[in-house]
C-alpha cells in the first residue's frame, strides 16, 4: 500500500533539454489508495467498525435515544478536540485544556452570583479570562521556546489549584451556587445547553455546535491562509518563519482558540448543570489530545485534519456509552481507549514515514 | 531554460530603482556580535544586478551570519547595510522579501509534509473573495506553480505530493523557482550544491547562471571553489569572520582561489614551521608571494 507515490526523480532532466516533457511518468494511484492517504480516513474506518460492532453487540444502541446520548457525549469531547487538534497540527499541545473548561465555568458562575449580575456579564468575562489563559500559554511558549508540554503543565497545575482555592474562598464550598434563577439564564441555556426534537428523539444543541465548528475548522484549515500557516508552523517552524509566515501570531492565536473552546464547553457545563464542581476537568485534557491523535493528527505537528477528531471523539462517545449499553463492566473503558490510541499512533507513524520517503 | 520569459511576474516586485551601476545590496564594514563573540567583523560586499557574487569560506568562517544579516533573520551590530543606496535594518525576513531579497536556505525552507503547491506559495498565498470568506485561490496557485516549475524544467505529475518526497535537487529548484517568481532581485543561495551529487550540482549551477541572465543579483554561498569559479563574477573569501579576499574574476585564478580557501596565507606561514619538522613535505605548498590576488585590507590584521 504505497500511499505516497514514488516520485521519479525528474531532476535528471536538465531545463529545456527534454523535448517532450509531459505528465504521466508516474501511474495515477487507484482511488482507494489515494483515499487511504488522507489523515481522516483511518479513523473513519475505525469509527465505522466500532459503530457496527456495538450495533451488533448491544441491541439498545439501535434506538434513536441511545444514539442521541452517544452523540451528546461525543460532542462535549469533540468541541474541545477540534481546537486541540488544530493546536497539535500547529506543533504544540495544551495540557491545561481540561481544567481551563472548569476555570471558565467557575468565573462565569461566581461572578454572576456574587455580584448579582445578568449571567451574560459572567459569560463575557469568562470568555475574556479563557482567551487570556490561552494567550498566556501561547505567549510563554513563543517567548521562552520551551516545550509547550512544560508550560501548559504549569498552567494546568496553577489552574487546578486556583479553581479549588478561589471557589472555597468565595463560596465556602467546593461547588458554586445554583444560578438557574438569575437574569439571562434561560436565554444563555438556549444557546449553550438546550435540546430539540428530531423525529421524537431529543437531541442536544451541542451536537449541532460540534458539527458547525467542525465544518468551520475544516474550511479554515484547508481553504484559508491561516490554515496554511497552521500546517507550516507545525511542520517546520523555522522554514515557515523564513518565508514570511507570522509564526508568533499563528501559535498564540491557536492557544487562544483552545481558550475559546474551553469557554464554550465550560458554558455548556454551567448552563446544563446550574452549578460547577471546582475539582473537575482533571484528565479531560488527555481525552482531548487522544481524540485528536486518534483522529489522525501527528503529535509532532504539521499533519492532520479537523474532520478526523470528529470521528475520534465519536469513537470515544461510542465506546464509552456502548460498553454501558452492552451491559459490560465499564472498568474496561480505559483499556479499550488505550488500545485504540496505540493503533492510531502506529498508523500515523507509518503515514509520516511513507509520506516523507524520498 | 527555453521559455523563461513567461515566468517572472512576481506578486511582490518592488519598483524601487537600483542604485548607480546596478548596485543592489552593499555592506560597508558590517559585523555582528553575539554577546561577546564576534562572529563577523568589517565585511565589505557589493551585489550588482546581473552578477554572481560568491562568498566562500570554511566552516565557522561567518558565512551563515552574513546571510542572516542580509536576509533579515539577524541584525548587524556594526557597519552599514545598504539596499539601493539607502541604509536599512531588517527586523524580519518579511521586510527583506518585500525589498526583493530572497534567500534559499540550506534546508530549503520547505515544510516536508506539505504539498508542493502549498510550499510554493507559503507565506504569500493567493486569495480571493471578501474578508469573512477570503479563501485560497487553489486552482490559480496550482496552475501558477506548475507553470513556474516547468519553466525551471521540473515537471511533476502531482503537485499534491508532499515536497518531502522530491529529491534534493528538485526541492532546491522548487525553492529557487519560488524565489524568482516572487520577484526576487537579489537571490541568496546558501550552499545550494553542498548536499548534491555532481550531476544535480550542475543543474543547480545552470539555474544560478539563468537567474543571473535574468538580471538578478545572486549571492552564492559555498565552500567549493570549483563550483564558485564556474559561475562567479566576484569572489569574497571569509576567514574567521573577516574578509580575507575580495577580487573580481579577472583578478584571481581558480588556483589562487583554492589556496585562499584552504587558508592560503596562513598555510604559507605554517609552511616554514612545518619545514623544521622532519617528514613533512612542504614543497607543494604555496609561498606567500604566490598569492598575487589582492588581499582585502584587514582592519585588525587577522591574517
TrEMBL record, chain A:
A GO molecular-function descriptor: transmembrane transporter activity
InterPro entries, alphabetized: ABC_transp_permease (IPR001851)
Membrane topology: Multi-pass membrane protein
Major location (coarse): membrane
Keyword annotations from UniProtKB, A to Z: Cell inner membrane, Cell membrane, Membrane, Sugar transport, Transmembrane, Transmembrane helix, Transport
CDD domains: TM_PBP1_transp_AraH_like
Location(s) in or outside the cell: Cell membrane
UniProt superkingdom: Bacteria
Pfam families: BPD_transp_2
GO CC aspect terms: plasma membrane
Membrane spanning residue stretches: 35-58, 70-88, 119-142, 149-166, 203-222, 243-266, 286-303, 310-326, 332-351
Function: Part of the binding-protein-dependent transport system for D-xylose. Probably responsible for the translocation of the substrate across the membrane.
UniProt-recorded name of the protein: Xylose transport system permease protein XylH
Organism from which the protein derives: Streptomyces filipinensis
UniProtKB/TrEMBL annotation, chain B:
PANTHER family: CARBOHYDRATE TRANSPORT ATP-BINDING PROTEIN MG119-RELATED, SUGAR ABC TRANSPORTER ATP-BINDING PROTEIN
Biased composition (Acidic residues): 282-291
Matches recorded under Pfam families: ABC_tran
UniProt keyword annotation of Isomerase present: no
GO molecular function, one term: ATP binding
Keyword hit for Cell cycle: no
Matches recorded under InterPro entries: AAA+_ATPase, ABC_carbohydrate_import_ATPase, ABC_transporter-like_ATP-bd, ABC_transporter-like_CS, P-loop_NTPase
ABC transporter domain ranges (all copies): 25-265
Species of origin: Streptomyces filipinensis
Protein name: ABC transporter ATP-binding protein
Spans traversing the lipid bilayer: none
Keywords carried by this UniProt record: ATP-binding, Nucleotide-binding
UniProt xrefs under PROSITE patterns: ABC_TRANSPORTER_1 (PS00211), ABC_TRANSPORTER_2 (PS50893)
Region of interest (Disordered), ranges: 278-303
Amino acid at each position: 500500500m504505497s500511499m505516497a507515490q514514488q516520485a521519479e526523480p525528474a531532476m535528471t532532466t536538465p531545463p529545456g533539454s527534454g523535448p517532450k516533457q509531459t505528465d504521466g511518468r508516474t501511474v495515477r494511484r487507484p482511488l482507494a489508495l489515494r483515499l487511504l492517504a488522507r489523515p481522516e480516513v483511518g479513523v473513519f474506518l475505525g469509527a465505522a467498525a466500532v459503530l457496527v460492532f456495538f450495533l451488533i453487540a448491544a441491541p439498545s444502541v439501535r434506538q434513536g435515544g441511545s444514539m442521541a446520548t452517544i452523540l451528546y457525549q461525543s460532542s462535549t469531547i469533540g468541541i474541545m478536540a477540534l481546537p486541540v487538534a488544530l493546536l497539535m497540527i500547529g506543533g504544540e499541545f495544551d495540557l491545561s485544556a481540561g481544567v481551563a473548561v472548569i476555570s471558565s465555568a467557575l468565573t462565569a458562575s461566581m461572578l454572576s452570583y456574587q455580584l448579582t449580575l445578568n449571567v451574560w456579564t459572567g459569560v463575557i468575562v469568562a470568555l475574556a479570562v479563557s482567551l487570556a489563559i490561552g494567550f498566556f500559554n501561547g505567549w510563554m511558549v513563543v517567548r521562552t521556546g520551551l516545550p509547550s508540554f512544560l508550560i501548559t503543565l504549569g498552567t494546568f497545575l496553577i489552574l487546578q489549584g486556583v479553581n479549588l482555592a478561589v471557589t472555597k474562598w468565595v463560596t465556602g464550598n467546593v461547588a458554586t451556587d445554583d444560578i438557574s434563577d438569575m437574569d439571562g439564564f434561560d436565554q444563555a441555556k438556549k444557546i449553550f445547553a438546550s435540546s430539540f426534537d428530531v423525529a421524537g428523539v431529543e437531541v442536544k444543541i451541542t451536537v449541532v455546535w460540534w458539527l458547525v465548528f467542525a465544518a468551520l475548522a475544516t474550511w479554515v484549515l484547508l481553504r484559508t491562509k491561516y490554515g496554511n500557516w497552521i500546517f507550516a508552523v507545525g511542520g517546520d517552524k523555522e522554514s515557515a518563519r523564513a518565508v514570511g509566515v507570522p509564526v508568533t501570531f499563528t501559535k498564540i492565536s491557536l492557544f487562544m482558540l483552545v481558550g475559546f473552546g474551553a469557554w464554550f464547553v465550560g458554558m455548556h457545563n454551567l448552563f446544563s448543570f446550574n452549578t460547577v464542581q471546582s475539582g473537575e476537568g482533571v484528565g479531560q485534557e488527555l481525552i482531548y489530545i487522544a481524540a485528536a491523535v486518534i483522529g489522525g493528527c501527528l503529535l509532532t505537528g504539521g499533519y492532520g485534519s479537523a474532520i478526523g477528531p470528529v470521528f475520534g471523539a465519536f469513537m470515544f462517545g461510542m465506546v464509552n456509552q456502548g460498553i454501558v449499553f452492552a451491559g459490560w463492566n465499564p472498568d474496561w473503558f480505559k483499556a479499550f481507549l488505550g488500545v485504540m490510541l496505540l493503533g492510531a499512533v502506529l498508523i500515523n507513524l507509518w503515514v509520516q514515514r511513507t509520506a516523507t520517503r524520498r | 531554460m527555453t521559455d523563461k520569459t513567461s515566468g517572472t511576474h512576481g506578486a511582490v516586485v518592488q519598483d524601487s530603482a537600483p542604485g548607480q551601476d546596478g548596485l543592489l545590496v552593499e555592506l560597508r564594514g558590517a559585523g555582528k556580535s553575539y554577546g561577546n563573540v564576534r562572529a563577523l567583523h568589517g565585511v565589505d560586499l557589493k551585489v550588482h544586478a546581473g552578477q554572481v557574487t560568491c562568498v566562500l569560506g570554511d566552516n565557522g568562517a561567518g558565512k551563515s551570519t552574513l546571510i542572516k544579516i542580509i536576509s533579515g533573520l539577524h541584525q548587524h551590530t556594526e557597519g552599514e547595510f545598504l539596499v539601493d543606496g539607502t541604509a536599512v535594518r531588517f527586523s524580519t525576513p518579511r521586510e527583506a522579501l518585500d525589498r526583493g531579497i530572497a534567500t534559499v536556505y540550506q534546508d530549503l525552507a520547505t515544510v516536508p509534509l506539505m504539498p508542493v503547491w502549498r510550499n510554493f506559495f507559503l507565506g504569500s498565498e493567493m486569495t480571493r473573495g471578501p474578508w469573512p470568506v477570503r479563501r485560497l485561490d487553489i486552482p490559480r496557485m496550482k496552475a501558477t506553480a506548475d507553470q513556474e516549475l516547468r519553466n525551471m524544467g521540473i515537471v511533476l505529475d502531482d503537485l499534491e505530493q508532499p515536497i518531502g518526497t522530491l529529491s534534493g535537487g528538485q526541492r532546491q529548484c522548487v525553492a529557487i523557482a519560488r524565489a524568482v517568481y516572487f520577484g526576487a532581485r537579489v537571490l541568496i543561495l546558501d550552499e545550494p550544491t553542498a548536499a548534491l551529487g555532481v550531476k544535480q550540482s550542475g543543474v543547480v549551477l545552470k539555474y544560478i547562471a539563468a537567474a543571473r541572465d535574468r538580471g538578478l543579483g545572486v549571492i552564492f554561498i559555498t565552500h567549493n571553489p570549483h563550483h564558485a569559479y564556474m559561475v562567479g563574477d566576484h569572489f569574497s573569501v571569509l576567514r574567521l569572520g573577516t574578509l580575507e579576499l575580495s577580487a573580481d574574476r579577472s583578478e584571481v585564478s581558480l588556483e589562487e582561489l583554492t589556496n585562499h580557501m584552504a587558508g592560503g596565507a596562513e598555510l604559507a606561514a605554517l609552511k616554514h614551521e612545518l619545514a623544521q619538522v622532519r617528514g613533512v613535505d612542504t614543497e607543494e605548498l604555496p609561498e606567500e608571494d604566490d598569492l598575487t590576488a589582492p588581499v582585502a585590507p584587514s582592519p585588525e590584521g587577522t591574517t
